[in-house]
Amino acid sequence: MPPSRNRHSAQRVFTWDKIKMALAAAEEGFYIWNIKTGVIHYTDRCLTMMGASRKEKAPNIFTQPELTIHEEDQAFFSQEVRRYLDGHSHVPMRIEIRMKKLNSKSWSWVRVNGLARRDKQRRPVMLVGVWVNITRRKTAELRAAEDRDLFHTLIEHIPDSIYFKNRESRFVLANTATANKLGVPTPADLTGRTDDYFFDQTMSDISRKEEMDIMVTGRPIRARLHHETWLHKDDSWSQISKFPWYGRNGELKGIVGISSDVTKLVKTEIKATETARILEERNRTLEKEIDLAREIQFALLPYEIPSRSHTEHGLTRHADFHHIFTPSEGVAGDWFDAFPVGSSGVGAIVCDVMGHGIRAALIASMLRGLMEQLSHLADNPAAFLTSLNHQLAKILQRANTTMFASAVYIYLDLETGVMTASTAGHPHPIIMGPDGVARKMPLPKGIALGLLDDATYHNAQFSLLAGSRILMYTDGLTEAANQDGEEMGVERLIDYFNNSSPHSTKDFVHQALTCVAKFTGCTNQADDICMLGISYSEHEAETDG
């Protein structure tokens, strides 16, 4: 077909109405700013991002940035807009800013795209473009950056040597303790070097053989005692652990090593039994590092979960939250999260990793990382748990270890008042209706995460009544035992709720903790306890009058 016919055909197909439909489907806002007159026009999507309504006059973000742009971004935004308009660039303008909501204290990340129309003197007369809500991506980037900072802070404060080597056993990354041990000014001075730069041939060959075996078999070495023979200083002894290092796509990148200097211990005690005793004392000093890891774990959990509301057709549906997280010792394998899903949804998860301590906490951190990759499934609990199980099972198979985690995930759609839930071998939540009657939520059974790669999970849906409350918890709550060794069980908890009248979400959750304390006769628990309470309410939306 001739090109001219193609153009005429496209003009007939791509009408303004269809272009508006495409913009709505992309969830992008469209604006036109007449630079000469100062008049700006927004589509409804722009007004929504700004927190404005059609009834009120929305401010011009280019001439009044102080009204709707985060104060830390205002100068940058104005500077970038002026640079684009003065620069005569054919490349579209793209600026990422934080936009404040006019009707609330909240804000979101928005990318402002624009293309200028210019007169014959190349002066800008009109700016046309779109707004794109990039809050989810920016939040993920900021969280990833925070995780990296936490990781670097942790390894720099641990007195042991921590390092990464590539497949040729050359140093790629190390902490300051490693640089100090090997006698170089900074960790960067280790990059690209191998052990034979520091140790004699015998020691270098042993280290290289160990690392080759780890990379070929995938089996780590743990707490192995090394007699280190150096090129230019006295012998020493270290306790070495090494693990395979895999990239994001599962490709082997090299090894990770942790080394603790135990020279003084070995020299002090000759006998192996005495050496083992002193090494055990050395391990106890690492409890301080576990305390640091515990603080980091608490920092990664939400300190406070904001309430969530959605108003439509004169009705506001509202959900608020309260949580309790009390690990029994050190770091824990229990964790929870609640987060917004789309414009009107809320996702909530409670998870319990097998066992306690650092191993369980590492699996819990891994699951949190995997969960971030599955945000596109957050409105479908069964699909979310199915994919999470598949990813965890693959990792555990590669690590040649058996672990599992139970989880329950709830998605609450505040547009409809419908709650969808699915469980993976986890205790069923307790739901209390507005009549004050509590019962165990009926959910389809599902196997724990990480056991079977091809396991699938199923949804159950519930239309919530205003005044309903939901309690999600780990089994540390119901398996708490009294002095006779008898476990409390879920039925005692339900009976306790049926004879109480919680006035708030916080009251609802704390009543569960009170029930445990009364049954066991103490406040110390043998297992981690994690609880997340949700209250659902409805009321007529306030109208301007």
Automatic annotation (TrEMBL):
Whether Repeat counts among this entry's keywords is no
The record ties this protein, via InterPro entries, to: Bact_Sigma-Reg (IPR052016), PAS (IPR000014), PAS-assoc_C (IPR000700), PAS-like_dom_sf (IPR035965), PAS_4 (IPR013656), PAS_fold_3 (IPR013655), PPM-type-like_dom_sf (IPR036457), PPM-type_phosphatase-like_dom (IPR001932)
- Which residue spans traverse the membrane? none
Q: Which Gene3D superfamilies does the record match to this protein?
A: PAS domain, PPM-type phosphatase domain
**Keywords on record:** Coiled coil, Hydrolase
Give a yes or no for keyword DNA repair in this entry: no
- What GO molecular function annotation could you give as one example from this UniProt entry? phosphatase activity
The PAC domain sits at 93-146
Q: What is this protein called?
A: Putative PAS/PAC sensor protein
Quick one: signal sequence residues?
none
**By its UniProt entry, which Pfam families does this protein fall under?**
PAS_3, PAS_4, SpoIIE
Matching entries from NCBIfam families are given as:
sensory_box
Q: Which organism is it from?
A: Akkermansia muciniphila (strain ATCC BAA-835 / DSM 22959 / JCM 33894 / BCRC 81048 / CCUG 64013 / CIP 107961 / Muc)
Q: Give coiled-coil spans as residue ranges.
A: 269-296
Q: Which PROSITE patterns match?
A: PAC
